[in-house]
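seq:
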Amino acid sequence: MAVVVVLACVVAVVAGYALGRRRALAGQPLAGEAAGEPVPAAALDAALDALLTGIVILDADETVLWTNPAADAMRVVRAGRLAAPALAQLARRARREEAPLHDDLELSGGRDVHAVHVVASAAPGGRHVALLLDDTTDARRVDAVRRDFVANVSHELKTPVGAMSLLAEAIQGCGDDPVSVRRFADRMLVESGRLSRLVQELIDLSRLQGAEPMRTADSVLVSAILSEAVDRTRLAAAASDIEVVARVDDAALAVRGDDRQLATAVANLLDNAVAYSPVRTRVAVTARRHGDEVEVAVTDQGIGISPADRDRVFERFYRVDPARSRETGGTGLGLAIVKHIATNHGGRVDVWSVEGTGSTFTLTLPASVVPEPVKEGVAT
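struct:
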């Protein structure tokens, strides 16, 4: 009942206001003005324009009398009429049934598709109909990401746990064969390490997602960040005979932030580059100043990324090559962690890639405005 009352009020006020605006433009006096009470048009304008809910008012001929900026942004009106047939049908039903109607629709506005929750309500008498539109595109996307995240976490946890269970059974069955026991035990260590990394990265990602952007932080030498990141990646690179080289244009180049988080971000980019590079190739990490920002670029000679995958590589658990990730023990969270670290430091991460040639991931961070004192990093 409350919804009906609220919608009726909105329809009456907005429809009356829209008609009043039309009469004013035509030189006719407004009802309030005739009674000596000026209509606060500016106040109504400000209030209705500030609403995040889109409002469209239709007359009996389904001509659009008025819209607010939120509705305009959804591009639901074209040439004074509703652009979406589904909206027009909902308005007709609301006028015919004289009751508020709810529906979830997908509306195309140029190249964009908006998911909207629509409430249609007719004013008393059924002459005017108000459509209230809430853009639910982002909410639906977040729900989809959440569902995918839960499904992916379940799958990723199930794999090493299941493997360790099978390996434990295998060890039980070959207790009199020391060679087999050692082989299965070594594999259990690999799977337990993978599980440990996955759990730790989930914890790290959870912390980063809830963190506020850094406003005050230490000034950290970029050379120290790169040195620690290269050190973390050295063993994995050596196993594939991949050379990792680092170069900083200016030894005094610095950024503000958490040195451990920034080293983790660069190390994750290096780990990703090594994982997707052929043996006996080179991975390079370079840093340079560009205006008020510092660009840290990690370039590999790997398999590259297709255009369809580039927009998704920073999603949690998304992998360009799932088979290669399983071989290298990747969790699929490394680039998502990089993205959140960059965001929390007021920066960003971008990717350039050509399939079959390689990729360059660029971490861009605000340069430190106070180069001294500089927090010392971990020595190589």
